[in-house]
Structure formats: structure tokens, C-alpha cells
Specification:
Elements: H1 19-28, H2 38-47, E1 66-69, E2 74-75, E3 78-79, E4 89-92, H3 94-100, H4 105-109, H5 125-138, H6 146-150, H7 152-189
Antiparallel strand pairs: 1-4, 2-3
The structure holds zinc ion.
Zinc ion binds near residues 57, 60, 62 and 95.
């Protein structure tokens, strides 16, 4: 096959490559959502210097596409205890949300992460940080200790399920790799395309 400089061959997809998104799904699935009232939403926006007619990404000022968890809800493959509620949500653009990940918001904003506000040379960075600090002081967010609330039996079962799924992914990956190699070898031996 002629290799074009502009077109990449499809790469080998792996089963185990899904591990981190599955880990996130396991912990996202237990995070409760407390819907804000309209008043709470207005109050949060006002603290951020916004109104419903003028909502921008709280980190960079671009058009927002989603509410970001201001304090990460998952870190180090465990829930942090923070949940989905107005005291922990700020409007964000997709670029910022993806770049921020599990970082502390202020360290990330002023840090060199790819697409962080600092590395994108966002204007008014100090002003934005100032607003977000006010937001941080606005309300004490819930901090949930899942294991304490539901008890060790259910909690350990959930962790066990997660570990079993990850183990099965690894095992499935080994088999998938073997199958792929065998198919290549047998096809070559049979004089197929080379
Ligand atoms: Zn942004």
C-alpha cells in the first residue's frame, strides 16, 4: 500500500486502552446531581460577573459549552467527595474543561498545561482568578464520604466490580493481540496480501 504523507493508516485499537474511561465511568456513576434553583444559578453567575444573557467560560472568556466541576470529582482513581451542585460548577468551554482534568483550578490556570489559560495567553487572567476566588468563598461545597454513607459492604462491592472489569479488559486485550497476530501469520502463510 502506498503511504500518503497526508493520510494515516488506521492504528491498532486496544481493549485495555479503554481502562481510564471505564474507571471514570465507575466513579462518575455514583456522583449525585443536586439541581440548582434559578435563584442559586443567578447568584453564582453574578459572583462570576455574568448574567444569563452574558455567560462566558469562567476560565478563559470563550463561548461556554458546559458546566465544569470547579473542584475535580475524581482524582487518583477515586472520588474526591465533591459532587455536581451549583457550589461546584462554573461555565466552561470544552478546551478548558478537557485541559483542566483533575488539576486544582488555580494551579492549572497559571500552569503550562496544554491549552491552559496561561499557555493560551488569556487576557485578564488575574481578574478571572480573582472572580473564581470569590466564587470559591461563596459557599462551602458538600464533601461526601461515600464509604461512610453507604457502608463498607456496598462500597467494597463497587470497588471489586471495577477491579474485575479492569482485569477482564487486560485479559481480553491479551487474547485480542494473540488473535490479531495469528490472523496476520495465517494470512501470510496462505499467500494473501502482504
Ligand atoms: Zn475556556
Amino acid at each position: 500500500m502506498a503511504k500518503s504523507r497526508h493520510c494515516q493508516l488506521p492504528s491498532v485499537t486496544t481493549v485495555a486502552g479503554r481502562s481510564s474511561s471505564i474507571t471514570n465511568a465507575f466513579f462518575n456513576a455514583i456522583i449525585p446531581v443536586f439541581e440548582p434553583t434559578e435563584e442559586e444559578e443567578l447568584e453564582a453567575l453574578a459572583i462570576l460577573g455574568m448574567s444569563p444573557e452574558n455567560i462566558v467560560c469562567a476560565y478563559c472568556g470563550d463561548l461556554p459549552t458546559e458546566w465544569d466541576h470547579f473542584r475535580p470529582i475524581i482524582r487518583g482513581q477515586r472520588p474526591t467527595g465533591y459532587v455536581t451542585e451549583i457550589a461546584n460548577l462554573v461555565p466552561s468551554c470544552g478546551k478548558c474543561n478537557q485541559s483542566k482534568g483533575g488539576y486544582d483550578w488555580k494551579i492549572w490556570m497559571m500552569g503550562p498545561a496544554k491549552r491552559s489559560p496561561k499557555s493560551r495567553n488569556i487576557r485578564d487572567l488575574k481578574e478571572r482568578i480573582n472572580r473564581l476566588q470569590q466564587f470559591e468563598r461563596w459557599r462551602r461545597p458538600r464533601e461526601i464520604n461515600f464509604e461512610e454513607i453507604i457502608g463498607p459492604t456496598l462500597w467494597n462491592q463497587h470497588i471489586q466490580n471495577w477491579e474485575d472489569v479492569i482485569k477482564l479488559l487486560r485479559k481480553s486485550q491479551e487474547l485480542a493481540s494473540e488473535i490479531r497476530k495469528a490472523v496476520v501469520e495465517k494470512s501470510r502463510a496462505a499467500g494473501g496480501a502482504n
